[in-house]
Amino acid sequence: MSDLNALLHSRSFVELGARQRAAALLDQGSLRELLDPFARVKSPWLEAQGIVAQADDGVVVAKGTIGGRPLVIAAIEGNFQGGSLGEVGGAKLAGALELAAEDNRNGIPTAAVLLLETGGVRLQEANLGLAAIAEVQAAIVELRQYQPVIGVVAGPVGCFGGMSIAAGLCSHLLVTREARLGLNGPQVIEQEAGLDEYDSRDRPFIWSLTGGEQRAACGLVDAYVADEVSVIRECLLHTLEQPGDTLPRSRQYARFLDLLEGYDAAPQADAASVRALYQGDQA
């Protein structure tokens, strides 16, 4: 292992950029990026709004191996437009998943890892972004029939909006302590429901409800891992080695609906009451 690769494997995963994260998780020297920045495939919609477009549209997609197993990996760059997904980035992500499904149909058992650092749809691209996210979701459902699709939410942007639904469709979901996962972000909830309902500046409260530890305790994710590249890579390898007969969480909707049916949403929710609800202890 090269000195650089050894450094990447021993350091914080959260501190790495999207391209570094993908390289650090794959076997050394196996990464082959698809539509890299030199392809200049970027959003045509941002410049007109005074926003400097990024050459890869904030999404890194690559093929490689992990533990010798064929893998497609996609990483969203949270530092570009809050990790929002637009037409180009969404097409890249969906296309990578579709390539993996095609590999499986051709006898190459290719799994997928999605590194989700995203606030959801890019508002500047509106319906185009929503359509792209819908394609991503459809591609996840298609691929998981063949091989696992593993989502990783590390932080600090978290995973929200339509991409949180994509995360919920993954075969397995891994989170760190720094991660957050929810349908609506804190500022959106505060804007629509008011400060008394949700104070977006109250970081301890936000993490107590949507943070990685809480989501793991509620059974909404499959693994709660330390923020270290080697730990996350080892967890991915272990997950890929498991039998593929586990029912995806999105197919367990009846159980979740039963849990939610009797919940009284009038009082302010807190971490303890939400955890009790999902653990089946709510009276």
From TrEMBL:
GO MF assignments: lyase activity
Record EC number: 4.1.1.88
Keyword match ATP-binding: no
CoA carboxyltransferase N-terminal domain residues: 1-194
Keywords of this entry: Lyase
Broad EC category: lyase
Segment forming the signal sequence: none
Superkingdom as given in the UniProt entry: Bacteria
InterPro entries to which the protein is assigned, alphabetical: AcCoA_carboxyl_beta, COA_CT_N, Malonate_beta
Transmembrane segments: none
Protein name per Swiss-Prot or TrEMBL: Biotin-independent malonate decarboxylase subunit beta
